[in-house]
Amino acid sequence: MERKFQQIEPAEIDDSVFTMIGEEWMLITAGGPPDFNTMTASWGGLGHLWNRDVAFIFVRPQRYTFEFVEDNETFTLSFFDPEYHDALQYCGTHSGRNVDKVEQTGLTPTTGKTGAVYFEEARLVIECRKLYAQDLNASSFVDTDIRADVYAAEDYHRVYVGEIVQVLRR
Fold first, then answer.
1. Minimal CA–CA distance to 28: which of 71, 61, 59?
2. CA 151 to CA 62: how far, in whole Å?
3. How many CB atoms lie within 10 A of CB 139?
4. What is the distance between the alpha carbons of residues 148 and 154, in angstroms, rounded to a whole number?
5. Model confidence over 12-57: pLDDT tens digits?
6. Which CATH superfamily hosts domain 6-169?
7. Which end of the chain lies in a sparser environment, N or C, as judged by fewer CB atoms within 10 Å?
8. How many other C-beta atoms can be found within 10 angstroms of the C-beta atom of residue 54?
């Protein structure tokens, strides 16, 4: 029998954020059917800011998903069990400009409370409403080694802070 999603409070997320994001990865998805895109990410976080529970993500402007995050008020973060690692690997190494990631991975898009797309196979979904966006910039790096190591091409990410509007867990 298939397990259904249960809505939980953000404070009930009991997974390690460091493991979820940094090691297991997530899919950042923006847009609604049929016009959406998803990408794999391993940078971001969860926390409390401006008296709200938030998620923050980083997207480079050259990524196809960037256009969708920019053009939509909401985005989702989908987290998966290990058997979906290959699907996440595919979504991180292929552009939605060139391939249909859903067709290639077999993931099943569905929509959440805000109409944003997430995937039925996920074990945890965080649906967010954008609150803030700002480009990282060279002059703000205190540790300039990071800038040299990660941004040699000066292709700085844009950081998005999203208010968590719904969390779904299997």
1. 59
2. 13
3. 5
4. 9
5. 999 999 999 999 999 999 999 999 999 999 999 999 999 999 999 9
6. Electron Transport, Fmn-binding Protein; Chain A (2.30.110.10)
7. N
8. 21
